[in-house]
Amino acid sequence: MEDKKLLLGLQQKEEQALAECVRQYGAYAAAVVRAAGPGLSPQDVEEAAAEAFVKLWQSAARLDGAKGTLKSYLGAVCRNEARSRLRTLRPTEPLQEDFLAPAEQAVQDLERRELEQLTRQALDSLDTQTREIFLRYYYRREKTARIARDLGLNLSTVKTRLARGREKLRALLQERGVTREDVV
Question: pTM score, two decimals?
Answer without folding.
Answer: 0.48
